[in-house]
Amino acid sequence: MASFATFTRLKDKGLAALRDGDFAVAKPYLVQAAECMIELSEENKDPQLKADQEQYARELIEMAKDCDRRAASGGERGARRDRAHDGKGDDDGADAGDWIVREKPNVRFSDIAGLDEVKAEIQLKMLYPFQHPELAQKYAIDVGGGMLLYGPPGTGKTMFAKAVACEIEATMFVLSPAQIMSKWVGEAEQNVRKLFEAAKAEPKAVIFFDEVEALVPSRRGSQDSPVMQRVVPQILQELEGFDRKAGRALLFMGATNEPWSLDSAMMRPGRLDTKVYIPLPDAPARLKLFEIYLGKRPIDDDVDFAELAQITNGYSGADIKAICARSATRPFLESVSGQTPRSIHMADLQAVIADTPPSVRAADVLKFDEWARETGG
Questions:
Q1: Domain with 323 in it
Q2: Is the pLDDT of residue 2 over 60?
Q3: Do residues 159 and 264 both lie within one domain?
Q4: From 204's CA, which of 73, 130, 266, 348 has a CA 20 to 30 Å away?
Q5: Which of 16-20, 183-187, 225-229 has the highest mean pLDDT?
Q6: Where are the alpha helices (DSSP H) in the chain?
């Protein structure tokens, strides 16, 4: 079933892409947001609110349709996309290279602040079998497999996935749910097949799905999307279909802020074998984060990193990054108004922290703990 949080996330991503002029990304997000809103309206008992929601869904659909016109006016880039969208490309769908974002990450585990226990768990599952293949073979340890990274937003799940790919020198395939579900590039099931085929062609590959709960949602509801009813089995089939002993091992990593929204079949052995909780940063991690985000900014000698780490207990890495950025704007604004440029003082950071509550509530953290107990994660 659709949730308002899912709708908001899809809508915000679509509008952000629209503002950036990336119409190929914006359209599928807007379509999915409209579908979400339609589902929410069907559950609404208030006639007026129901009508408002249906009208909003129509507006989103119109915005999505407008993406085609605006993309077409974007020159060769828009024309190339239109050919793929119309199914007039070189084959029966878009070539994998047209929609898979490949990258060679340069983030290593040493670049990630703190969380040593999490690093050790990921290294045991994902890195050591690659780095010590003879020992892995001796002890019948499979190379590759699946791992779910779950936890509050802003805790570095994507960075951990990039670090895995970097440490084993693998090609990383980064996919968004909107790209897979887009009707512009053929059937969604076909997109999934093309993705795994492209990854299998690499000597080492990491497939990373962010917001995996949007791609493999629970199928318990009675109003499941027909597309999702086909896509979820296709993904599960692909996960079980690759040969981990063929020398071209594939790692599948999913990240989610809502693990309870995932289809239960995704958690079975052979799929997402390991579930790793990425918690809020501990004190050493928070201290290092402040050092990183303040490192290239002018800071006064009175800045106490240990105290900053202490007073930001419960803050995420994303929160700390925002705090450092906002603290820098204080002396910056003074400078552009004609005052003598100065360094960032401890008082600046303290004032911003006092005005910035943690983005993750304690109740949300307890929800992750409860889910971990129930699932053995």
A1: 283-359
A2: no
A3: yes
A4: 266
A5: 16-20
A6: 4-19, 23-42, 47-72, 76-85, 96-99, 116-122, 128-131, 133-138, 157-167, 177-181, 188-200, 212-215, 226-241, 283-294, 305-311, 317-336, 346-354, 362-375
